Amino acid sequence: MFKTALRPLAFSAAILAGAAVAYAANPMVGGGEMLETKNIVENAVNSKDHTTLVAAVQAAGLVETLSGTGPFTVFAPTNDAFAKLPAGTVDTLLKPENKAQLTKVLTCHVVGADVMSEALVKMISDDGGEHDVTTVGGCVLKAKAADGKVTLTDENGGVSTVTIADVKQSNGVIHVVDAVILPKM
């Protein structure tokens, strides 16, 4: 859940100009159309850029949860984001004996609320340039907006940038990110 309650949306062009990211009605993500009528898992399986994430969600046993009613905000790392991890990390996390650790990593990408980028940018602005985002996995991410980008800094200092924002789902929203968010271990 976010540190502060969601506030009514009243945005100025100046706030939004500071954090412009890619927007589209029904955006294509990884070559697949993302339909608002489908849930997070149904849409993710259609993205060629998220096959590693889908495999991880399946290995962690989170398919049913992320197919549920939500609402959820998912910061969805791409295959390239997973490829940036040290060699062997993904293979190790996908092993059955590491399910708890994989679940922790994945749930640090999920917020138990439906948060569009405009609302997040407003919270960042209202909090003086940095907003704490608490994930369902208990991770606290530092959200910032600068140079036309929204970034999330994890508990280890790793920075993830939102590359595609506001991909609406029937049970929430996906924001595509370029790095894997890691919990403090």
Helix and strand sequence: HEEHHHEHHHEHEEEEE
CATH superfamily: FAS1 domain
Q: What is the first-to-last residue Cα distance?
A: 21 Å
Q: Could you estimate the helical fraction of the residues in percent?
A: 25-40%
**CATH architecture title:** Roll
Number of helices: 8
Spans of at least 5 consecutive residues whose pLDDT stays below 50 are: 1-24
Q: CATH fold name, please?
A: FAS1 domain
Give the total of domains.
Answer: 1
Please identify the top-level CATH class: Mainly Beta
Total count of strands = 9
Structural class: alpha+beta
Strand order of the largest sheet: 4-3-9-8-7-6-5
Largest sheet: 7 strands, mixed
Tell me the strand percentage band: 15-25%
- Described by the principal axes of the CA atoms, the overall outline is globular
Based on CA atoms alone, the radius of gyration comes out at: 15 Å
Look at the structure and give the mean pLDDT: 85
Keywords: Signal
InterPro entries: Adhesion/Biosynth-related, FAS1_dom_sf, FAS1_domain
Protein name: Fasciclin domain-containing protein
Short characterization:
29% of the residues lie in helices and 24% in strands. The protein contains 8 helices and 9 strands. The strands form 2 sheets. A 7-stranded mixed beta sheet has the order 4-3-9-8-7-6-5.
Q: Could you characterize what this model shows?
A:
With 185 residues, the chain is α+β, with helices and mostly antiparallel strands. The chain has a single domain (34-177), classed as FAS1 domain (Roll), CATH 2.30.180.10. The chain contains 8 helices and 9 strands. It has helices spanning 13-17, 40-44, 51-60, 63-67, 79-83, 89-93, 99-107, 117-126, and strands spanning 28-29, 32-33, 72-77, 110-111, 131-134, 140-146, 149-153, 159-169, 172-177. The chain has a 7-stranded mixed beta sheet with strand order 4-3-9-8-7-6-5. α3 (51-60) crosses α7. The longest helix has 10 residues, at 51-60. Mean pLDDT is 85; it is low at 1-24. Residues 1-24 form the signal peptide. Residues 37-181 form the FAS1 domain. This is Fasciclin domain-containing protein.
